[in-house]
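Quick log. Single chain, no ligands specified.
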Amino acid sequence: MFLLRCALVVLAGCAPVSAVAATRPATGVPGLPSVASATAYASLEAARDSVGKIVWRCLNHADSTVRFSREAVTFDYRYAKTQAHGWAFEVFANELASGLMGCVQEALTAAGWVEHYGYMADGADGSNEGYLSRNFFCLIEGDWDGGDDADSTYVPQPGCHVVVTCVPRREDDFPPP
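-> predicted structure:
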């Protein structure tokens, strides 16, 4: 089912408004892989709509408890130490976050986005992953009840909370060398 949903995202035409070949590595940071995307969007709204379709298509619509919302947000960049206005899609679902996040990650990659390694984090009760297009940045944040390592009888609560934020890309939003 997971792979089918991801394939539908690709086939449904979540393609960007325009694509421009990258001419140079985007990071410029020694030690970080070169991240250059050929995917570009005409506006923040075009990127928002494309990413929103990706998130929507990754949802399990048979689950009546899924809650999905979109809102304008102010985003704090991790490395650039500034803010930008953008859009966030918030999902509360009973499914595993790994399935939902994995579907969004695969669909963004299929649409030409590339990973932003400076925003990657993974833990027992949450995960973050950043993605770059030529001119926009997308952050996928997931959290869930990871359990209690000290209590083997603890049963984690089902479900997850995933937020996908899309903002303008900044060339200075990378870890220092």
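Residues 1-31 have pLDDT under 50 and may be disordered.
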